[in-house]
Write a structure and sequence with these properties.
The structure holds two protein chains of two kinds. By secondary structure, chain A is of the alpha/beta class. In chain A, 46% of the residues lie in helices and 9% in strands. Chain B is α/β, with parallel strands linked by helices. Chain B has a domain at 32-149 and 242-372: Alkaline Phosphatase, subunit A (3-Layer(aba) Sandwich). The longest helix of chain B is centred in the C-terminal third of the chain and has 24 residues, at 261-284. The chains are: A alpha/beta, B alpha/beta. Chains A and B meet through helix 6, helix 7, helix 8, helix 9 and helix 11 of A and helix 7 and helix 10 of B.
């Protein structure tokens, strides 16, 4: 069908039978946009879309109508018509239309209520297929505090465990594509089987080019605003000489989106790590994730507004590391990351979160009671921690 | 008969009136024109949790110190579009604005500045907007001088580097390049058209401010942030022109979009300090002391930590953390006290108009009875 994206046979069948066209325009066009680059989506995203629309398709039509009735009512008040809202085409203009409507809060609530009814059903399917998952969050060793000042926002959900001196090594991975992720601020990416490796530092050639090209686009082409800029940014694809990720179109596009859609991800290492982690969870739903933060550099005088400029070269002032600022930044990121995983059924009640800090004599763990570190007595050696994690994952 | 818009009517009336008033009358001694209103917005957005919530007070020591001396509204809400331009435009127009988020359209109804121009017969030096974001060049299309300090800084530095002094050419070029980049600000990560001079200032005004800025950036108090520049320019405007009506839009805290919580907190504390310094200036400047009401409020909040987007980094979710803020009124009309009574951003314009003795109509905001009696 003209205008239809290339999707899986199952989803194509649902589109062909008119399922999408029967749904409220704001809802269906959004999902058309989500699936239009089907080949650049992760397997978890394929599965989600098939399950979501499969559920709607096999539900009682009267029930579906009543489920979406408040959305249709809100759309009518907003003035959504076939003319103002062409089917199968979702743009930033439409986002703007929604945001600026006086009925936006009503529409948003109606959409939220739809998912409030659908998600529990979809989640129940996932919970039945639940399996152990592991998230390791590593902090740099230069933080100016002791373990008693670490992880304070989420400590009430877990426990501290004394750790003997030694280095942590979480050098294992599952064998499934996109199921193990290593996201780090510093250092070259470490290779472990099929794991996805993202390193802010290693992405410097791509980051630098992106900053330069975006600056050029904004200045030379007199781009008026985000709607005009959006399509140009999509063209800034990763080159093979900039990163090995370029060989995988899904990961290359994921990285481009993280760097250009995430605020501050081009400039601040830990913002990149946090946003990449959040996006990996939302999109790929990996089983094993290792997240390593670094130390953020101090912002140079007058440079706090230079979004698309390499701070190292923009100012002659020497670069300094901001240890205290990093500590403050990370305390809230620990919370955001833990919360993000827990939003999804795949992770609830079966995920062990291990927060470690290089050089500190305590770690913090949030996990189901059967995760051994939740009941261990006395201090443990880092090697034992690694072994426990590996056993938990069945590797 | 073609329908004439309310804005157009005011524009025509203002222009006609202005044409009949001699410059001497229009620019009369400022001491003859009390009262005065200064609206200070924490632009960029700040959450309750980092300001007047118990755990946030440490970030705003000056405002916390000022609060017992003014009137505090515990709940002042933004029920409009949660973008910077629309939020501030709603504050100064008394109606929820739903125009282009990036300043490519003016507010859809007249602003306080337009009413002021018409009813006070005031010349352009009597009302000012001091802002950072380029989009604000269009926020008060009639009735105010809009000054974007960073634009002036660029002009000033251009003047400096273009002088054939023969020293440090490479460094001066570097400075020039960096300062030009400053103008590409906008933490939401997309490029807006760079307004080459914002709203064109009167040549004399422009030269006055630029000269002051050149002295400032070469002096011992060289600014290191946009908000320090904003404060400095506001103070210079108060001392030089003593306007009756000023909107000061601080902006540094929008660094939150970068994802650094510590930089966000630092920016809040800096804005708190500068707001306190602005109040100190009001208290020490005879054109303002005992004649001025200062209204301080966040332009918008930011997403809550539990939000599905990414917490403090953004401000579009519409959750209570985004919408529910506070307002602190200081000075004339603001007897010490506070209330839990919910008020709204659009009430600010109605209140300011009444404080200035102006009549406004067709606005959804209501004057705040605690301030206007």
């Amino acid at each position: 069908m003209a205008g239809s994206p290339k999707v899986s046979p199952l989803l194509q069948g649902l589109i062909d039978k008119g399922l999408f066209d029967q749904l409220p325009a704001t809802f269906s066009t959004f999902f058309y946009d989500q699936i239009k680059d089907w080949d650049l989506l992760f397997p978890a995203e394929h599965s989600y879309h098939e399950r979501l629309f499969g559920l709607i398709d096999r539900s009682d039509p009267a029930l579906v109508n009543s489920l979406f009735a408040p959305v249709r009512a809100a759309e009518a008040k907003m003035g959504v018509t076939e003319k103002s809202w062409p089917k199968r085409q979702f743009t930033l203009d439409q986002v703007d239309f929604l945001n600026r409507s006086p009925h936006y809060p009503e529409w948003r609530k109606a959409i939220s209520d739809v998912f409030g009814r659908l998600d529990p059903v979809l989640d129940a399917e996932l919970s039945r297929a639940g399996r152990p998952r592991l998230v390791v969050v590593t902090s740099p060793d230069e933080l100016p505090v002791g373990p008693d000042r670490m992880w304070l926002r989420i400590l009430k959900h877990g426990r501290r465990v004394p750790v003997e001196p030694g280095a942590f090594h979480f050098d294992f991975a599952t064998n499934t594509a996109y199921d193990t992720w290593k996201i780090q601020a510093e250092g070259p990416p470490e290779k472990h089987g099929s794991a996805v490796h993202l390193s802010y530092e290693a992405l410097k050639p791509y980051r630098t080019r992106l900053m330069s090209e975006v600056r050029h686009i904004v200045e030379a082409e007199q781009i008026r605003g985000p709607r005009q800029l959006g399509s140009r940014l999509k063209e800034l694809k990763m080159r093979p000489d900039e990163s090995g990720l370029a060989g995988d179109p899904v990961l290359a596009e994921f990285t481009r989106a993280v760097l250009l859609n995430g605020n501050g991800t081009l400039l601040i290492n830990n913002t990149f790590v946090e946003w990449a982690s959040v996006q990996a969870v939302r999109r790929a739903r990996p089983s094993l994730v290792s997240i390593s933060f670094g130390v953020r550099n101090k912002v140079k005088p007058f440079s706090s507004l230079l979004i698309y400029t390499d701070q190292d070269t923009a100012s002659p002032v020497s670069t300094q590391r901001d240890m205290l600022g990093t500590y403050v930044d990370l305390e809230i990121f620990y919370q955001y990351i833990w919360q993000e995983f827990e939003k999804y059924a795949e992770y609830r009640r079966n995920t062990a979160y291990v927060f470690v800090a290089d050089g500190m004599d305590e770690l913090m763990v949030i996990a189901p009671t059967d995760f051994p570190l939740m009941s261990v007595r006395g201090s443990v050696h880092p090697d034992r921690v690694s072994a426990i994690c590996r056993e938990w994952m069945g590797l | 008969m073609a329908e004439i818009s309310k804005r157009r009517f005011l524009q025509l009336a203002g222009l006609t009136l202005a044409g009949r008033i001699s410059p001497q009358v229009a620019e009369a001694d400022p001491l003859q024109h009390p009262p005065r209103v200064i609206i200070v917005t924490f632009g960029g957005g700040v959450r309750y949790s980092e300001t007047f919530a118990p755990e946030g007070l440490r970030n705003i020591p000056r405002l916390a110190e000022m609060r017992p001396h003014g009137f505090f509204y515990q709940s002042c809400s933004n029920s409009g579009v949660l973008s910077h331009f629309n939020s501030t435009a709603s504050i100064i127009s008394g109606n929820w604005q739903r125009v282009d988020d990036f300043g490519f359209q003016p507010p859809a109804s007249p602003t306080l500045f337009e009413y002021h121009q018409k009813q006070a017969g005031a010349g352009p030096s009597r009302a000012w907007v001091v802002a950072t974001n380029k989009s604000f060049a269009q926020i008060a299309p009639q009735g105010a001088n809009v000054v974007l300090p960073k634009q002036l800084l660029l002009d000033a530095v251009r003047d400096i580097v273009n002088k054939p002094s023969g020293e440090g050419v490479a460094d001066r070029e570097n400075v020039q390049r960096r300062l030009e980049s400053l103008l590409s600000e906008g933490y939401e990560g997309v490029g807006w058209t760079i307004f080459k001079a914002g709203r064109q200032l009167d040549r004399h005004v422009h030269e006055t401010l630029t000269r002051a800025l050149v002295e400032y950036i070469n002096g011992p108090e060289a600014p290191s942030s946009g908000d320090e520049l904003t404060f400095f320019m506001t103070r210079e405007i108060m001392r030089e022109f003593a306007p009756r009506l000023i909107l000061v839009n601080f902006w540094d805290m929008d660094v939150a979009h970068w994802g650094s919580y510590s930089l966000y907190l630092q920016a809040i504390t800096r804005t708190d300090r500068l707001t306190g310094m602005l109040w100190d200036e009001i208290q020490s400047n005879k054109s303002y002391k005992d004649k001025t009401t200062m209204l301080v409020l966040p332009e918008l909040g930011r997403d809550g930590d539990q939000n599905t987007a990414n917490g403090f980094l953004n401000h579009r979710s519409g959750d209570p953390s985004c919408r529910r803020m506070w307002m602190l009124a200081m000075g004339v009309g603001a007897a010490p006290g506070e209330t839990e009574r919910p008020v709204q951003h659009v009430d600010v314009m109605a209140t300011a108009a009444e404080l200035l003795g102006m009549k406004v109509s067709d606005i959804s905001g209501k004057p705040l009875r605690e301030l206007v009696g």
